[in-house]
Amino acid sequence: MVKRLSAEAKVGFFLVAVLLGLVYLTTQINSSGWSLRGGHSYYLYFEDVSGLLPRTPVEYSGIRIGQVREIRLDGREVVVEVVIDRHVVVYDDTRVSMQTRGLLGEKIIQFSGGGQGIVIPPGGSIRRTEPARSFDKAIENFSELSMAIRDLIKGGEGKASINDVIENATKITEDLRQVVEGRKSDLDKVISNLRMITDSVGEFVGSDEGALKEMAQSMRQTIERLDRIVARVESGEGTIGKLLHDEETVDRLNDALDGVNEFVGTFRQTEIAVGFRGEYMGSERDPIAVTSLRLQPTFDKYFLFEVTDAPLSFGRRRRTLTETTTSGGTTVIEEVQSSDRFTFTALLARRFHFLTLQAGLIRSTGGLGVEAHFWRDRLSLGVQLFDLKRAQNPHVRALARFNLVGQVLFVQGGVDDIFHKDSRRNFFAGAGFMITEADLKRFLGLAPLALSQ
Q1: Is residue 207 part of a domain?
Q2: Whole-prediction pTM value?
């Protein structure tokens, strides 16, 4: 009889086969001319990049073609390194400008025009750049203000002028003069009343001269105390004085503020995506529900958190499995009870060219995963290995995913628990969605248009 391979040997051979397949795909992609890099680098020169951060989008006519990789200072110019999709051709007559988008003032780099000049090779420089349009808007507002002042001075065509204002003021003074001449006796009475009021104030001051002196003395003492406090602060005494004069304290405060700014900038650039999918297992009556949260701070790294519930009814159930084995002519019946429950997945993923490696928790157990991406990330093939200490051999899961509608909707399928000890492998299929903040912005932008139809 041929000796059967152990489960460990099967798992080892399977992983070797997967790695060989990925190596083969790598060689095929190289031979067909695909680039393993995410894009080509170009260098842009600006005088002012206020509000620009790494990973800022680069767009051409509203379509995202890349992002900012690095910002550095070269003399008196700011050099911005951008990564552009390798399928995009950049010409020397292409115009590059910084623009502000949305109510929050999000900065983007906009490519426009071009196509008639010489092709700029990867790694080339583009010096034909324009500053942010906010400056142009300020110039336009200043021009409107100057025109308004000119119209005010010249007048005409139904517009008021300074001469009209002077004429109106003359009429008002003439009217006042006539009013004063007609009511001279009333004005004499007003002046007499004012004289009586001033006399009363003088008598009050004379009678309470001591109280006024005490008030003046108190004010003088208060001013002297303030002078002493200001002198201590200027000499560096006290908490406020040290804060203003101690360079070490100022440096620490600046370092803390820089750390806060860096954290806020990183958080603003983090892409947040939420998703949900359902999977129908061949041996189960009810589908499995998976809720996902993905945090992606950079292009090649993300954190994935998932909650898996079986079945979709979000409840618990107990199953009794009867296993019969024959040993030496004796039949042994063993009842094993298991309980479906929530499981958690927390993975750190890092992408290398067209491969993504994963490590962390998979279904509440330690595990590893690898995915290969093809056809501009529309097709993904992956393998996950977890629950390594299980008595029925480690859990191996192979799947294929195809993205639809701008990578928002997807369908997937594959084989679950391939190397189960009792050959209880399962075929599964499902569908779901993964929506990002940018997708929500596009949806909210189209919603008013749909309501107006």
Answers
A1: no
A2: 0.42
